[in-house]
Amino acid sequence: MYSNNKNLGEIPMYIDTFQPAASSLREEVFAFAAREYNTIPEYPWAKSPGYAVLRHTDNRKWYGVIMEVPRKRLGIDTDGANLPTSPDVDILNVKCDPVLSGSLRMQPGILPAYHMNKENWISILLDGTVDVEQIFTFLDMSFELTARKAKAKTSAVHNTDWLIPANPKYYDIETALAEHPDEPFFWKQSNNIFVGDIVYIYLTAPVSSLLFKCRALEVDIPRQSGNKNIRMKRAMRLQLLETYPRGAIGRDKLKEHGIYAVRGPRSIPQTLIKEIEMLL
């Protein structure tokens, strides 16, 4: 049975013919996509009624694909395993920054993309191996990577306020700045940040909060990282200006200002800066 929904670009949606794998988070993903992006899943393949596509309403690009596949096809050995569910598992394919894909695949439940470009996409198990909030973060990242890009302006104006991510799993910047708040520190530079620019630092999951405001004192410093999880060719030296309480500028607050993911240096909206300044 299928319905042809014109709001979804005349793509057939096959329904009522599929039962999802037990212990699957697919419905949580669908609910999140509907709530955050107003997306309804599409089912374009009659022979695979359990395969669902999440796509942008404007450019029609996919930002998520959910499939039920045998665990063995994913390289998961089920021989002799006492699995509480069927040998099939739901997965979510999302687009990923190639710089991050290698380290992400080292985490449990995150695999090379099934049936998609393995450099730019990853597969996430939806059986509970990966925390649902982390899955939502990956979906945010994919949504932003596949979003329609704004046309370049003919006369570009240099951005002076930046938002950059910090992964607390790789470096405990909270403790470092709490112990030495007045000492300038080095940080990876991967964009055209200039001396004097303001840099806001957002700690990714599980913190998911903007915590620090800094000023760039020195930029374009040749420097290698001693952390194998961080690839770095140049660094900037930052001075801490302000520290904000956890949760005051969280993930939901960023979304109110159009920021769905912080995967690299990006400009920060003036509306958000004004709201941050009200915290002082």
Description:
- 19% of the residues lie in helices and 28% in strands.
- The protein starts with a strand and ends with a helix.
- It is globular.
- It is of the alpha+beta class.
- Residues 1-20 and 152-156 have low confidence and may be disordered.
- The protein contains six helices and 13 strands.
- It has two domains: 2-145, Alpha-Beta Complex (Aspartate Aminotransferase, domain 1); 161-277, ph1033 like domains (ph1033 like fold, Roll), CATH 3.10.590.
- The longest helix has 14 residues, at 132-145.
- The chain has a six-stranded mixed sheet with strand order 9-12-11-10-8-13, with helices on one face. It has a five-stranded antiparallel sheet with strand order 3-4-5-7-6.
Q: What features would you highlight for this structure?
A:
single chain, alpha+beta, 280 residues, 28% strand, six-stranded mixed β-sheet, 19% helix, 2 domains, disordered N terminus, 6 helices, five-stranded antiparallel β-sheet, Aspartate Aminotransferase, domain 1, ph1033 like fold, 13 strands
Give a topology summary.
Layout (H helix, E strand, L loop, with lengths): L1 E4 L5 E4 L11 H12 L14 E4 L6 E9 L17 E8 L2 H7 L5 E3 L8 E5 L6 H14 L15 E6 L6 H7 L5 E4 L9 E6 L5 E14 L11 E10 L7 H6 L9 E2 L2 H8 L3
Helix pairs in contact: 1-3
Offer a quick outline of the entry.
The protein is of the alpha+beta class.
- The total of helices stands at 6
Which class of the largest domain in CATH terms?
Alpha Beta
The number of E-state strands comes to 13
> Which strand order does the major sheet show?
9-12-11-10-8-13
CATH topology name of the largest domain: Aspartate Aminotransferase, domain 1
**Overall form:** globular
Main sheet makeup: 6 strands, mixed
Order of helices and strands: EEHEEEHEEHEHEEEEHEH
The tally of domains stands at 2
Mean pLDDT: 82
